[in-house]
Structures are given as C-alpha cells and as structure tokens.
Amino acid sequence: MYTRREMKKCENITLIGMPGSGKSTIGKLLADELDFDFIDTDDYIEEKEGRNLQEIIDTNGNEKFCEIEEEAILELLPLQNSVISPGGSVIYSKTVMNKLNQISTIIFLDLPLEVLKERLDNKESRGIVGLDSLSLPELYQERITLYNKYSNLTIDCNGLSPDEIINLIKVSLK
Predict the structure, then answer these.
(1) 76 part of a folded domain
(2) CATH code for the domain of 92
(3) Alpha helices (runs of H) in the chain, residue ranges in sequence order
C-alpha cells in the first residue's frame, strides 16, 4: 500500500501528485486530523494573481506560470505544523522541492492514469501545466519519475477511501 524511503521527524507534510490525485481533499482532512494548518498553494496563487490558474497559463504560458508558482510557494515558507498541497507542477522546480524536503515529509499520492482520467473531466479548464503540448498520458509519464524522485513516502491510493489514505499516512509517519 505504501513505499517508504528516508523519513524525517515531521514538522510539515507536503502532498504531491498529479492533478486529480486528491491532494486538496486528503490535505484538508489530514490537517484536521493532525490539528495542522492546511495550505493549498493553487488557491494562494489564484488569490495573489487575481485570476484562476488556467487564465494565468493561457496569458503567461507554462514557463512563466512555473516562475509565479515558485515565487508564491517560497513566499509562504517557512511553515510549521502544516499540510501543504502544492500544484502538480511543483516538481518542475528543484529550488522549491529542495526547500520542501528540508521542512517537510513529502508524500506522493499515486493513482493509475485510468483513475486520473476519470477524475479529470475538467482538465481543459483546470490549469494544468504542460497539457497544451503533451497528452495526459505523456504528462503522467513525464511527472511520475519526478514525483518518485522527490517523495519520502509513496501511497498507492487506488481503491482506497480518503479515511484509509489518511490512516496509511498516519501509520507510516509514526
């Protein structure tokens, strides 16, 4: 159900994964369970920029969006006792990922491509970096390597309820 690599004492938890993997849903529930703050960086970016993610990508392009994302996340740090839910494209920033690795345990919420396809019925308007030039399967293949590279813990979420995922996370962090 989960793969564990080097774990650290947990001040923060960062959830990474593809759009549709449940980062926000699991993040909110996990934060409540642990009595941590919940930080959704996509919400922060939209509030800061005054537009939704798709508008930012359409207007500024993928590269500029990634710069905006990096800046916004670095502004939020350092954090304590927080569950952090960054956008799926955060793994393109070595700077941010290295910083998140210093202050948190990074957990990859892994789901098969077929499940993600079912969940992403709004992918054209969701603000997903790279979908203008890659298909969802290509984007998945590109990112899966990076999610595995940066994560301390991988949770196979396929077929699990949010409560089951949270319980797996809690058990693995003990």
Answers:
(1) yes
(2) 3.40.50.300
(3) 23-34, 41-49, 53-76, 94-103, 113-119, 136-150, 162-173
Nearest to 45 by CA among 79, 13, 74, 16: 74
Range of the domain at 58: 12-169
Q: Which helix (H) or strand (E) holds 77?
A: none
The structural domain count of the chain equals 1
In the three-class reduction of DSSP (H, G, I as helix; E, B as strand; rest coil), residue 85 is classed as strand
CA-based torsion, 150, 154, 156, 160: positive or negative? negative
Question: Is 174 a member of any domain?
Answer: no
Supply the pTM of this predicted model: 0.91
pLDDT over threshold 80, residue 2 = no
* pLDDT (0 to 100) of residue 130: 74
- Using a 10 angstrom Cβ sphere, with 0-12 exposed, 13-18 middle and 19 or more buried, the burial of residue 107 is buried
pLDDT digits (tens, 9 = 90+) for 117-166: 888 775 555 567 777 778 889 999 999 999 999 999 999 999 999 999 99
